[in-house]
Design a protein that fits this description.
239 residues; Gyrase A, domain 2; three-stranded antiparallel sheet; 9 strands; globular
């Protein structure tokens, strides 16, 4: 299965807020003899399903990389290309698209964009070096510029999927991390609020989730279809 970043378009980060009523004033608390309170409503978490990989479930290397971003935590956007003469040799592609200078050098970033052909097979598929940044195609008009691997498959405990809420077109994949993976997120997320963390299969972007200060032992990725969420969760558990 070749899962494309087109799934990311459906992966919007939803932040739910809570509203509470105003506290009673000092005057009302001293004159009132009784206080009526509305019963606290509890919500049952949406059911989660553990996928059952079978013989048809592909095996991919699962990794997570953060988007390369500027001082304001905004993504560095370079328009994607359809280069008629891209770097097709894996070694040449790696020299350009995994140049350490990609982290901050605009010229290196533009060279990487010019070396891509997003309409054909990726010569780096499954061959990217986890210790170097990566320029890769995405499902949008921009090339994805990603930092070195933050989490790999050894830091995943399991993946489940289920409804993401009352909306019929939202399905979430929950990735539960090992203690080692959770510690990395606790140390990393507060310093990178609003930065996107990309999930990759064999170096291809699959989905994204936004980091915030509370990101720790679990990661949530949202999809528009149940089957997409089921397949992704199955691949993660079949890593």
């Amino acid at each position: 299965m070749r899962v494309r970043l087109l799934l990311i378009i459906a992966a919007m980060v939803v932040v739910a807020g809570c509203q509470g009523g105003p506290s009673p004033s000092a005057e009302s608390t001293t004159t009132a003899t009784t206080t009526s309170r509305k019963p606290v409503r509890t919500t049952t978490p949406p059911p989660r399903t553990t996928p059952k990989p079978d013989a048809s479930t592909p095996h991919h290397t699962v990794r997570f990389r953060m988007q390369i971003h500027d001082a304001n935590h905004d993504a560095v956007n370079i328009p994607a290309t359809s280069n008629p003469n891209p770097a097709r040799d894996p070694k040449s592609a790696a020299q350009i698209r995994q140049d350490p200078a990609l982290v901050s050098d605009r010229a290196a970033q533009e060279r990487a964009a010019a070396s891509l052909d997003c309409d054909h097979a990726d010569p780096l598929q499954g061959k990217d070096d986890p210790n170097l940044p990566l320029a890769t195609c995405g499902g949008t008009e921009f090339m994805e510029l990603l930092d070195r691997v933050l989490l790999d498959g050894s830091m995943i405990a399991n993946a489940t999927y289920g409804p993401g809420g009352p909306l019929p077109d939202r399905w979430d994949v929950t990735v539960t991390l090992t203690p080692a993976g959770g510690k990395i997120m606790v140390d990393t997320a507060p310093k990178n609020a609003n930065v996107l963390l990309m999930m990759l299969f064999d170096g291809e972007t699959v989905a994204a989730t936004g980091l915030d200060a509370n990101t720790a032992g679990t990661l949530e990725f949202t999809f528009g279809k149940e089957d997409d969420a089921r397949q992704v969760a199955a691949v993660i558990d079949n890593r």
